[in-house]
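User: quick one - fold this with FE2/S2 (inorganic) cluster bound?
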Amino acid sequence: MTSDPDDHVQPGKRDFLKLILGGSLVAWAASILYPLFAYLKPPKQAEVEVTSVKVGTLSSIEKDSGMIVRFGNKPVILVRSAAGELRAFDATCTHLDCTVQYHKEMGVIWCACHNGKYDFNGRNIAGPPPRPLDEYRVVLQGEEVLISKKS
Amino acid sequence: MKTFLTKIYTYVDERVQLEDLVQFMGKKYVPVHRHSVWYYFGGITLFLFLIQVVTGILLLLYYKSGEELAFESIQFIMSKVQFGWLIRSIHSWAANLFILAAVIHMFSVFFERAYRKPRELTWLTGMLMLFLGLGFGFSGYLLPWNELAFFATKVGTDIAGVVPVIGKPILIFLRGGEDVTGATLSRFFGFHVAVFPGIFTVLLGIHLLLVQRQGMSEPLGVEAGAAAPQKTMPFFPNFLLRDLLLWLIVLNILAILAVFFPWELGQKADPFAPAPAGILPEWYFLFMFQTLKMIPAQVWFIDGEVLGIVTFGIAGLLWMLVPFWDRKSARGEQNRTTTYIGIFVVGYIIILTILGWLL
Ligand code: HEM
Ligand code: FES
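Assistant: Sure. Structure tokens for the protein plus FE2/S2 (inorganic) cluster:
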């Protein structure tokens, strides 16, 4: 008589064992992979929440010019029109992340990377940028010029 | 002297039986025909990689990664360390020649159909090494932390971020955060000097082992027309000596370039300065970059950039899988279609690279 040793095990029991074995294998793999992938993800740095920055006195900012201002860890561009009006925008180009500058001759905010152009209101008017620049608020406190986030 | 060497050989041979190994290394023959020149480009690529390993390790003796250290350490290498400028210049020039040689090698293999059975794995490992080579170039470019590299990396990683679904996590992973910062530099440094060299070495080992094991392929046309026995030359020493001569020539070209056109360093990266005009990726990314510039912002209802990137991704994948869909060549028949595809791809890359320079 030939007897298969498997005959003694009920199929239900075997499936159960397979499940346990397979499950623990998956759990084992996950317990290794999860920390690994979690490690690769950079933690959110606790940034000092900046709400406004002082730029300087109004008279120190030339007409028809632009300057990059450090806003926390973000660059912001402050532009002053020939008429003397002030505007501030996020200086990060909406196309591919370059930093924009004020271009006197063209009278636009210009991105050198792919020749993107924005007007005095931060609207994308030429080149590849798909969206306008985010605007910041410019506040005058007496002579002092301040830039703050638009809420 | 002779007896001393023989003694060493016998010593080792007695313990590990070198016979098989010597037989294995020595049995290769290189076919001789009118396309034989192309066989040399793999060797040149190998040589340039070795140069990169040596000069890279030398740079590591003085290079420091970090936002406040990287640029300064390269300045130090170039001005204070004796021949530091030369080592850096060689590493930079050889990086470019390495990619060039690898690309030529790859296309010659493609047009000679050397990827067909049984050499599919050789082709695959080769393609993976080429992609790694591009990774070497992209990551190394940032290491001096200069203005040009800073913005090129911003743009390059931002392009990766455009890919639907997986793009954003990839961008965060590459940059080590939302923006290109010192964290990005640390990561790129790690990839460049540890991760990539490790993987590359394994792939290279497999690649060379396969070449040694299977010998050189012959182009289809040559194979078919050969009723008479093929002309060959032994790999050792005939081909190897020619290889070495060529390496010497490449080394000379490299030295001339490195000495007479020393690699520039430029301005230190400043995240609070506007991007300078003339931001360009390295020349081997230029054709993709130019394509992205020329695609309209919106094609149908799809974002132009997304379309471009996904198309390049799929095209690259199909190219890598050519041994598996080019059934005709696998059967040993001429396949014109792949030739035309190849010519189209070469033409496309050349034309868009030139446009990228001019526009
Ligand atoms: C084990 C191999 C390698 C090591 C240890 C290494 C190490 C380094 C180091 C320390 C730097 C920073 C110094 C500098 O920027 O001049 C660097 C830069 C660089 N590496 Fe490598 N490297 C290796 C292989 C490669 C390969 C195979 C390539 C091929 C594309 C490559 C391409 C570059 C480039 C383009 C730079 C930037 C050069 C510059 O502008 O200064 N490296 N590498
Ligand atoms: S990044 Fe500004 S135009 Fe492309």
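One thing worth noting: Chain B has two domains: 35-146+159-267, 285-359.
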